[in-house]
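note to self: dont lose this again. the chain is below, predicted strucutre after it. 371 aa total, dont forget to put it in the shared folder this time
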Amino acid sequence: MSLTLNTNVASLTTQQYLNVNTANANQALEQLSSGNKLNSPADDPAGYAIAYKLGVKSASLTTAINNGNQALAMLQTAQGGIEQIGNILTQLKQIATEAASSNTDSGDLTALSTQVSQLETEINNIAANTQYGGVQLLQGANTVTENQAEQLAGIDSINASAAPVGSYALSMTTGTGGVSLTLSIGATTQTIFVTTTTMTPGTDQTVNFNNLGISLQVNSGLTGTAATQTLAVAAGTSSFTYQVGSENATIDQITVGIANFGTTGSVLNLSGGVGSQTAAQAFMSTIDTAVGNLNIQAGSVGASQNEISYQVANLQSMNTNTQSAESTIKDTDYAAAMSNFTQAQVAEQAGVAMLTQANALPQQILALIKG
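---
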């Protein structure tokens, strides 16, 4: 081996290995102090990208779990209101049963009628005030199904949000300067004459059947040539959609519909009273129908609760497994990291000692010169 002064190859080689060992020691120390095996993409580009995606997935799943729990809380609130309405229906059935008996005199019927009125008011109050996050849960607006009447020339739209549930008949008769519209359900009928000759083409006029809770938007093309049409009014629902998954897919979204539970124009559709024995007997049947409808809707809410509960449980399992996968890639294995740190630290110390020796090699040139 030649002795040179300007270039100390042994020192340079020793510095190279010392730098490597120092970098390994620093990396192990960073892993031990941060708890992360991957502290930058340079540590493992592929692993870093996979771990980042898993982290995003876990964060989304955590939020979806929270959404599901919020949905359950909302449904529990609705269920509480439905149960209280059910209790009131039970009391109404007791009152109607009492009023239907011949031993109830007119004074008793008056008192019982007052109770019925108060209880029905309370049903409406519960339906209006059962809210979650400021949103009414039990008072969805009623709807009229798509039918021939909405497709007739001259009728642009129908609003039945305040109408009692049922099947309505709409008829038209041509008159002088306009059309007579007649809307009826059972014994309740209302007729309104629409003057079409003074209507501005292209603009709508509201025809409000206030006795029935239905309004029409009509235009100047209204004629009386159409046959009688049927308007089927269905109880409205309050619709809520919750994102209970981490993907933009139907399976990750649950929509819950909660019916209108007011006394009229709802799934209860309470009408009549206990003003007489005969009326009370008829009211008993009305209450029975209301109870049946309430049970159906309560069961639907309960089924939605079960569906969301299972979804939340599945999300929690998915989130646990996702975080476990992320951990195997990203988190520090302290046993391995400590072993690597100790090895690198010893190698670094040895490198420093050997660098001292390598730096001293050129001094042998002095011995040759002195000799």
